[in-house]
Structures are given as C-alpha cells and as structure tokens.
Amino acid sequence: MPASAIEKQWNFVPPIAAFAINRRGDWIAAALGDGSLRLLPANEAGQPKEMKLHDGVSLSLVPDADDHAFLSGGDDGKLFIIDPALDAPTLLAEQKGKWIDHAAGTVNGFRAYAAGKNVYLLDAEGQEKFTAPIASSAGGLAFSPNGKRLAVSHYNGVSLFWTNAKEAAPTTLAWKGSHLGLLWHPDGKIILSGMQENSLHGWRLADMNEMQMQGYRSKVHSMGFTAKARYLATSGAEQTICWPFFGSGPWGKTPLMLGGSDGQLVTRVASHPKDELVAAGYDDGRIILAPLNGRMEMLIHPPVAKNGSGVTGLAWNGAGDCLFAALESGYLMLFTIESVRKSTLHA
Amino acid sequence: MEQIPVTVLTGYLGAGKTTLLNRILSEPHGKKYAVIVNEFGEIGIDNDLVVGADEEIFEMNNGCICCTVRGDLIRIISGLMKRARNFDGILIETTGLADPGPVAQTFFADADVAARAKLDSIVTVTDAKHLVARLADSKEAVEQIAFADVILLNKTDLVTQAARAKLAAVIRAINVHAKIVATERCHVPLKEVLGLGSFDLNHILAEDPDFLGSIEHRDRGHDHDHEHDSSIASVSLRMEKPIDPTKFENWMADLRANKGPDLLRYKGILDMAGANAKLAIQGVHMMMEGSDLAPWKAGEKRESRLVFIGRNLDEKTLRDGFAATCQ
Asked: pLDDT (tens digit, 9 = 90+) per residue, B283-295?
C-alpha cells in the first residue's frame, strides 16, 4: 500500500459535519459534531482558528455572499455569517424551533435559507425580501451564477425564483421524485439536481430540454463542473462519472469514468480550478487525483481500514496548489502539489 | 460505523404513545435518546433532544410500485447523525393516523439512513377500551396492529378479564406474530419494547426458537365473533419437505410483484434443499432480504415456516403456492 501524500493533518471532534471553502478560495471551514467551527487559511499549514457556532450542529455550511466569509445554518434554527477576520459568528436570521437545512449566498449580496417548508430570501442588507412556501421540505438551494435566480429543490421538482421580484412567483420544473442537491452550469443556462432515486436530472432553461443521468449506486451527494465547464464530475459510483457538456451537451453520450476502487463508492469530488483534473474521495477514506486527459490517476491517500472514515469534504484552494479533505472520523488533511510530487517520486 | 437503533411507536390518538415515550425516557437506564415526534400532543415530552417533523411521504421511482419512504425521517436522521454521538438510540412517535409502511421502508430503501440507523422494532400502543371500535372504523388502526412487533394492550384496568382475552384474540387474528403485552398506563419493562432486534434476521431465530411454533393453536379459523371488518390478517405456512431455491425465488418474486402492496410484513425460516444452514427471510411490501443463519443441528427437525401479514390474502392460494416450491 503506498503511503499518503499528506502534507499535514489535524484531528478534530468527529464527525466533521460540514466542510466548505469560501468564494475567494483562501479560507476553509469545518463545522464539527459538537457545534463548533474550525477555520484555516487555505494556502498554508497554519493553526486553525476556533469558534463556537451552533447549539447543536451545522446542517449547511457554504460560501457566503461576502467572498471572504461563510454561511452556516443549524439545527438550532440559527443562520450565521462567519467572517474569518472576526472572533465570533454574526447571527443573521433565526427560526425558533426549526432546523435550517440549507443556506446559500451569491455574488450580488443576496442570501437564502430553507427551514421547514419555507424558503427565505434576504437582500444584501440582510432584510427579508420574501418568504415562499414550498411543496415539501427543501432538498437543496442554489443561486444562479449571476445571482438573479434562486433554485429550490423539493418533492416532484425544482422551483425557480427571480431574486429581484417583489413577491415570490416561482416557475416550477416538474419531474417526479424527491430532488436534493442543486448545481447550476457556470453559464447559468442549465440547472441540475441530484435525486433520491440515485440519479441526476437536469433542465436546459432556454428550451426546457431535460436530461436524466442514471446508473449510480448511491445518491449523488457531490458534483461540480471541471475547469472551463467541459465536464460535470459526479460522486455516487465506484468511479468518478464525468458527463460531457461541450459541443451538443450530454444527450446521448457516455460519460468518462475515472478511477476504480474494488467496490468502494466515490463520496466527494472536487474539480481543480485551472486544470482538467478531478480529486475524488471515497467512502473508505481513499483519495485519488484523476486527470481527464486519459493519464493515470494518482492515489494520494490510501484507504483507511476503520469504518466511518469516509471522505465527507474535499476542496481545492483558489490557486489550485492545495487540496483539503475532511474525513467523517474528524481528520482534516492538507495535500500540496509539492507533497504529492514528493510522494510520487518515492513510490 | 455502528448503526443506531430506532424504535417506532405507533398507535391511535389517545392510546398512550406519549405516556410510553415518557416512561421510556424517564427510566434510570442511563441512556440518551433523540426523539422525533410527528405531532405535539397535550402531554409534554421530557427529553433534551426532541425534533418535530411533518410527515412527508415520497414515492420512489425505482420500479417498486408500493415503495414509499418518509422524506422527513431521511432528512432528520441524516441531520442527527452529524452530531457528535451523544445519544444511544432514536425513538420515533408517529401520528395516530400514520401508515407504518413508509416508516419501515425508509430503513431499507434509503442507503444513507440504512448505513447509520437500523429499525429495531415497531411498537403499537392500543387502548383496550376503544380498540374494537377503532379497528372497525379506521384502516390505519388495523395497519398499525398488522405492522407491529410488540402490541401494548394498554388501559387494561378499564376492561374485564374476559374482554381482555377477547381483545388478544382479535389482535392475533390480524397479527399472529407480534408479542402482546397487557399494560396499565403503559407500565412495561423496557426490555419488552427496546433492543428487540425485530428486523434483525439473526434475531428471528435466536430470540424466538419457537418461531411460529404455536401457530396451529392460534388458528384464526374458529375465532371469536370478529367485530371489526378487517381484510388484514395473517397466514402461517409450514412445510416439511425441503424447498427448491429456484422455485421459491420465482414464487416470491411473482408474489411481491403482484401482491406487494398488500403484503405488509412477512418472515420465514426456511429449509432450502442442498443447504446446511437455515435461510431467514423478511420483507415489507416488495422489499425482501434474506440471510443464511446457523446450520441445522444434528437431529433437529428440518422444516420451513413462513408467515404473511397482509391485506386480502387468499390462504389457499398462498398455501398451494408455497407447497409447490418443494423440491
């Protein structure tokens, strides 16, 4: 078994409930099972900064509208902004007795969160623009890349809201089943949702042409477009499944399938910000780097024998020279291009 | 990661679910529970971690026509598992009108939930004084009896000894397999309701060596004046000849495809031709799982036993179908 290419690791209170990198790509945040938070600069092996966050646990930790900060919604009904420059989080909204299951922030300063069967939109000043009831508890929330639209997934479809509208008047894209995590194409013209039925569904908004990607072994918990948005990399199978989005799009095409793992599942994917390269984390803790040009993938962290050590978070920093991985067992790991290169030389 | 045990408490409004819940929580067992409630009743719940949920029933487009899951439970159990593990089990109190089917199926159909949590048992609380009336006017009340592993015949102080025996017989006619415990104010030793492993295939044998053994004298044929008009009942089957695995598989596949929505629960211990070990199976609607158990002992009588609890079951068709699977 090859050694890990790890540069440094930190052992936190398990499990790492949620993990994110800010929009600028220079800070990472890990929300822990005891409700606290750890922040680390995303370009060095620095000392983590600690702060108390939820009386419970974070259910959704995401990059904030402020490109420096994070948003966290918790099972204590609180929505916090976390500015890495400050010593404590700032309370933005509260829904007493509810869980804030999802949160999102966008470029124009708008933020949204979902609690129960409602979605709340806040403007750049933090004032509530509207509250909209949804068909079921929200499965996911995502602003379009320019912030003009907000997508909310739910049972039997995805609802799209205009964020500059005075009142909530959603357009609902219908497709049977329970819709979960959402992702917009970087051009804002396609919205994709991961489904309870181990599949992906997508809509091209211009002509409402739909796409359905099946064959996954689990729910697709993690997906992202690769550099220049040529491929959509997805978790949920034994390999990293990459659907082509160039030319005429994914219709009728077979995906690239990267890596392989004797039965283990990919749980998280992270596309490199500049190169056509995907990092994939598995449910046994292994992490690989897979180039899309057909070259051999690299195992940068071997499987962990213990159960419950699946990769639950994976993110490149903005420069693309550091990869952070969070394991459910409480470990946060840093790999650098340098540490990976050294370990390949030794192998 | 160890799966956390989940106990589901069902029962009609006013039967005593919350009383049972509080009794479980207040006993000096040193354990902590997360409680999920689907309706807040008049009685408060004495626990640190209580999560309210709206019942959200999702149909799954997975080719299984009766496969429905509880979206709210998937969401809440996944959320609870993000916490540092500061509880030992989960108790779910459903509404008086809840169908236990989607609750049970959630633990089989959702891989994320199944990886972290396991259904321990379904406990149904009934009100001895009103049970007969409820069974007559509520299909949910009948389903809650049919799905149960344990049935508390509660408020027995309000009925006569004779009425109690009759109620037990009425329950048996629906669910031949559940354990019936007579209680007053849900006073029951916790070992009767928690940690039962009712959905654990190994447990089918280990805890209940006489599995279905006493079925014959629970025969529902000459049974009491049924005061409820239920189409839900149990059918118990037994066969001494070894089973042909292919024939059995085909028969069960066909049965699940055609009768899946009506098959509420089924369990069996089977003697498969050519196998040294006992095969245990169990199912809810179309979902079935099986596992080889301990080998047959030398001198042990090899036979197969199978029980179905379901709606509109035709006993003769089932009996003939099962008999035809012999080698």
From this structure: 999 999 998 888 9
